[in-house]
Design brief:
Distance between the termini: 36 Å
CATH architecture of the largest domain: Orthogonal Bundle
Number of domains: 2
Largest sheet: 3 strands, antiparallel
Strand order of the largest sheet: 1-3-2
Number of helices: 7
Oligomer: single chain
CATH superfamily of the largest domain: Winged helix-like DNA-binding domain superfamily/Winged helix DNA-binding domain
């Protein structure tokens, strides 16, 4: 909901505000495969710290992208899942993944050099 507090008329800016950092996208990727516990997310999202994972999960819960289910047991068990709203982002995440694969293939063909304008245009037409 914090993204709606911004003064913008641009829907893309709202989307970027909600999922525009590296960690949130990677968390959503992992949750797209199903419900996960905190420790599972910490292992699967390589490089994220416990603090940043906690902050990201809280923010995403506040924004309505994930749900948090707490089980009354000892030790505490908490599970995270994508909400229906976040599952709507699946197509966008798939497109980003496809684009990343094309870029990677193009980049590695050029012997790890940046692609030139003609190659970028060719990928864009695919």
């Amino acid at each position: 909901m914090r993204c709606l507090r911004k003064e913008t008329n641009c829907p893309a800016e709202i989307t970027i505000c909600l999922i525009g950092n590296k960690w949130k996208l990677l968390i959503l990727r992992e949750l797209s495969f199903g419900t996960k516990r905190f420790g599972e997310l910490l292992r699967k999202v390589v490089g994220i710290s416990q603090k940043v994972l906690t902050q990201s999960l809280r923010s995403m819960e506040e924004d309505g992208l994930i749900s948090r289910k707490v089980y009354a047991e000892v030790p505490p068990k908490v599970e995270y899942a994508m909400t229906a709203l976040a599952r709507d982002l699946g197509k966008l995440l798939d497109l980003m993944g496809d684009w990343g694969l094309k870029y990677k293939a193009l980049y590695t063909k050029k012997s790890k050099a940046a692609p030139d304008k003609d190659q970028i245009a060719a990928v864009s037409k695919d």
